[in-house]
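Pinned message: reference record for FT-interacting protein 7
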Amino acid sequence: MDISGSLDPYVEVKVGNYKGVTKHLEKNQNPVWNSVFAFSKERLQTNLIEVTVKDKDIGKDDFVGKVLFDIAEVPQRVPPDSPLAPQWYKLVDKKGQKINQGEIMLAVWMGTQADEAFPEAWHSDAHSVSQQSLANTRSKVYFSPKLYYLRAHMIAAQDLVPSDKGRQPDTFVRVQLGHQMRVTRPSPMKHINPEWNEELMFVASEPFDEYIIISVEDRIGPGKDEVIGRIIIPVREVPQRIETAKLPDARWFALQKPSVAEEEGEKKKEVKFASRILLRLCIDSGYHVLDESTHFSSDLQPSSKHLRKPSIGLLEVGILSARNLLPMKGRDDTLHPRWNEQYTWEVYDPCTVITIGVFDNCHINGKDDARDQRIGKVRIRLSTLETDRIYTHSYPLLVLTPSGLKKHGELHLAIRFTCTAWVNMVTQYGKPLLPKMHYVQPISVRHIDWLRHQAMQIVAAKLSRAEPPLRREIVEYMLDVDYHMWSLRRSKANFFRIMSLLSGISYVCRWFDGICYWKNPLTTILVHVLFLILVCYPELILPTIFLYLFVIGLWNYRFRPRVPPHMDARLSQAENTHPDELDEEFDTFPTSRPTDIVRMRYDRLRSVAGRVQTVIGDLATQGERALSILSWRDPRATAIFIIFSLIWAVFLYVTPFQVVAVLIGLYILRHPRFRSKMPSVPVNFFKRLPARTDSLL
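Predicted structure (tokens):
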């Protein structure tokens, strides 16, 4: 097309108002593009598909030729049908006349999202996205890194050589694995052969390409430490321990001076005498590394593949569409997106939870420093799903922001849980939630929280290096990084959850109080009859209780939930939360707010903690009163109680049990005219018992 006889061709595919363009190839009359373009069938505004070949030019691009297709005549392909074979088509000019030379090879078909060509295709709903940013619009499956707990036992050291030989060294051990760093307590033995006997735990990830850096340091003064010796051990050389197998034997490792340890590629000089450290290192593959809260964990399997149980079923999730979304960036936002994508997982435990998050993609315009915005999240516990039933339901998308609760619309999902091993699934309910190692050799709560945070950081770092990256803000939101941080809103929600549970107990107490005070005489008489029957025939007590539970469960079957539960704004106390409480919840740790705001929040926290302290103190008082009954702290009260106990022992020995039970029951259920409004004698006696509150400062 050019005067020089060259051609820089590219193809423009146009369907109505949508236009897709291939990249241009310089000076090539036989170009190969291998590009796929996908146009949404629901948005077609024309009956023609126009494929035009053009020549890239400095000014206006030259027209080379085109091919037209009638959409009504396009063949339909449904997988697993074989893909259509591309064919050569003669190019025509603008008037539709065939030109002398020039052909284009292509295939046109009506397909579905199951086509193998669809994931890598250019999509009409991403027509404004550049070629470089197309990767951020593709469907991808990311695998979380395989995590393990690494146990490091610092036992002792020998023949340390401090820089100041005139003083005894105050030594401790610093261990570093990647970005994780832990320090032992200083040795109680301040000499050149210290002992620590302390265990530290870390999180390691496959393919074990990191190094453990262990250094023995001497605390010379406040904030001043000196490295005495160091050793670097590859993680891949650390032995693995499966379940409760015997720990590997401790080994002596020669410490090197820091300058020698940092040198790489230099041949180590053989030394006859050196400082040593006694270590026991192992990778515990019998644990499940917790990178999310156990309350809604998506996986509970141990790290070792040899200990993993077979799957019990399949979970199929269809992500259909969303509607009534709020605009996040402007007019170009799609407020009613349709995905129609299906994903399948093997299920190993019915008590796991699937989390589905919705985000606003802020990287489709090449802005690498932008953060994807949260739109909402849905959690579904698999045990709440009936097997082999398809749930098609819309879930509200709720997200909490510093400005308050936002309702972003609804997410339409199709979910089905299929059980393939009924016996294994039923027996799972009688097994521990976590692998055996968590109960045989439990890790303290303080260490678990620290290890959980490290595991989250490793997962976020690994997935952020994928292509396209799964960014840190997405991983942190899906794993609920801030779930264990202080939140006044969440504390209120937990308080009202407890009150909701206690309301059932208070209802039973009110019902029994109504029986005792004869508010409904007929019910009270029936309770008397039932009580006398159970006293006369005590062997009916347990069968009656379990039969009652069976009937209640059968009755509640009619009112069972028809859809899985979703995020509840009222339960979360998110609807009427004060803005300052939300600002505190989204504050960084440590805080970044001004001093006066921190002081005000500290005073508020002291007020809340004061109430909690009072409740805990009252509970402790009641417990101490119960313990003081036989402790002779109040000698008269203890004497009264033991004499009373002796009288009761003799009385119960000579009196049949049924008679005693009838007397106690009739006394409790006596008529109101035989009752007094004053507290009973046992209550008065209990409240007069001493507690240790007298000894508190």
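Pinned by admin. Summary line: The radius of gyration is 36 Å.
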